């Protein structure tokens, strides 16, 4: 874990090996105008510090570049699609490492309602079902929980509306995709729209089939479900994968609530959190050593 930053490292900093993998995906400074005086690596480290600590931009430690420069580059790279490119590249590498094709043939869709902090911005509402004022994160992951896409809307938006906004831009982005798993909110007209517009099939997962489909039970063996799940909660087949992905997201302090004024900023931070998780899996900060 060699780190050459010229300062004491924070836990969120990239190691030399991680930066070597990430550096080609970060745009080079423009050759026009004045000579750049801000390190791209330090800008990324500062953004990761905000993501992990949850601090406001203006409270960045002074060891990092000026918060205005970090904030500017974060939004510029979001507009230029840099976070999307990083997410896609790392996801392909992750799937290859897992012994799978680079592009998935099946995926899972779901949403998560999250409270917002006292910040200004559009796309806010009240989720009657979850009794939550804030925003809703519509996520799309592969069968390993790796993020494919995310869309942030007001919490009042239905899963049908959010799912349409989420999937429509992916029409030609996932050439191998054929099957999507989702709960009952993604049935009905949404199922028909996906089939006619995108050519994909949605399989709806119902809770009544959980014991038979969720766990493998040897033939003839009785299972005491109440003893196995004393709280009454039982893992739903395929859907538990995306629930785990949501749990990965909210582990980051910046994402345990929605602190962003713009939903696009929330989406960028979610993509960055998913990318960082895959990056640390591909290149661990403390790799295991053989005995």
Automatic annotation (TrEMBL):
Residues 14-86 form the Insertion element IS402-like domain. Coiled coil: none annotated. Residues 103-276 form the Transposase IS4-like domain. NCBIfam families: transpos_IS5_3. This is IS5 family transposase. It comes from Ktedonobacter robiniae.
């Amino acid at each position: 874990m060699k780190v050459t930053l010229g300062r004491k490292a924070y836990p969120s900093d990239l190691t030399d090996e991680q930066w070597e993998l990430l550096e080609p995906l970060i745009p080079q400074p423009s050759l026009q105008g004045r000579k750049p005086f801000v390190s791209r690596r330090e800008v990324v480290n500062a953004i990761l510090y905000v993501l992990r600590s949850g601090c406001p931009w203006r409270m960045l430690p002074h060891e990092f570049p000026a918060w205005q420069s970090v904030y500017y580059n974060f939004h510029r790279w979001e507009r230029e699609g840099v976070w999307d490119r990083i997410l896609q590249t790392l996801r392909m590498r992750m799937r290859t490492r897992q012994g799978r094709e680079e592009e998935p043939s099946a995926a899972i869709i779901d949403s998560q309602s999250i409270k917002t902090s006292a910040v200004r911005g559009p796309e806010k509402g009240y989720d009657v079902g979850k009794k939550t004022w804030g925003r809703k994160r519509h996520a799309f992951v592969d069968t390993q929980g790796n993020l494919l896409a995310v869309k942030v809307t007001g919490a009042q938006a239905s899963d049908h509306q959010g799912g349409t906004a989420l999937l429509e831009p992916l029409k030609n982005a996932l050439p191998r995709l054929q099957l999507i798993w989702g709960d009952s909110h993604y049935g009905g007209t949404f199922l028909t729209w996906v089939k006619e517009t995108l050519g994909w099939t949605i399989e709806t997962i119902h809770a009544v089939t959980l014991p038979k489909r969720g766990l493998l039970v040897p033939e003839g063996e009785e299972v005491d479900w109440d003893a196995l799940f004393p709280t009454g909660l039982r893992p739903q087949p395929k859907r538990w994968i995306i629930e785990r992905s949501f749990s990965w997201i909210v582990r980051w302090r910046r994402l345990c609530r929605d602190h962003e004024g713009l939903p696009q900023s929330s989406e960028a931070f979610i993509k960055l959190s998913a990318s960082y998780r895959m990056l640390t899996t591909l290149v661990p900060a403390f790799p295991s050593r053989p005995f």
